[in-house]
# Entry
Amino acid sequence: MSGIGYSTRRFAFSAGHRYWVDAWSAEENERVFGRLVIPHGHNYTVDVTIRGAIDPTTGMVIDLGELKRLVGEVVVERFDHADLNADPLFRGRVPTTENIALVIWDIIAAKLGRERLWQVRVWEDPTLYVDYRGEGAEADGLRGEGGESPSPSFRGRT
Amino acid sequence: MRPLELTRVYHFSAAHKLENPALSGDANAALYGACARDHGHNYYLEVTVAGTPHPQTGMAFDLGRLDAVVREEILDRVDHHALHTVPALAGVITTGESLARAFWEQLVTKLPPRALARVTVVETAKNRFEYRGEPS
# Structure
């Protein structure tokens, strides 16, 4: 028997952040981000999904214990009770839920290979989550693209 | 470009019953069983939009706008109402599948082109219905 399976393991960390662009003045940050410039925090939940062949010997796509160890080391230990804005990975990137999903994808993909990593889902709270499946991951599109398009409003964010 | 999807989870409580008006009472009871009786659910509605984070602000979508559209188009009309009597759902048999499709149709014209990616109706902790606008 062969076949492709998807296995998901859930992780959690609590971290602080604020919306802030270093290149801007305080007034500009407050105009664009409102109350989100005030440091605050969330209990984040991350669902990591691995895609792969179901191994005929083990019956598994991946040893979820191995995934737990790996993501625990490179994601949870790094971000739990941390100030996300102070992490080098968020230098020049506002730690929005979107960017947190991209950063976590990049960390795990570097360890496991992007062909195995199917999806990273980051929950900021029980009412908002972001799914990223690696589209455009080769080219770092976080900077220098689309600068002319207007940014969405911060309204509705926490 | 690194496109991703944002999902917002909303909640409403509503009464409903499953009834095809073209069928007799007995036929509806036979078809839908207990679901043909008046009852209700604590629904969760997940609305997923596709976008790409803005290079400076890191935000891919205006969640305040999404909240306003969902509230006006759906939540205000269905929360604490009987779904089979809601004018905006006229002609809809209020199964989870059909609600997801109806909500999709209501949202898709109010959001930017190609923004809406998925509408999910969670009827109970055991029943989840997704609609992505695909033609059958």
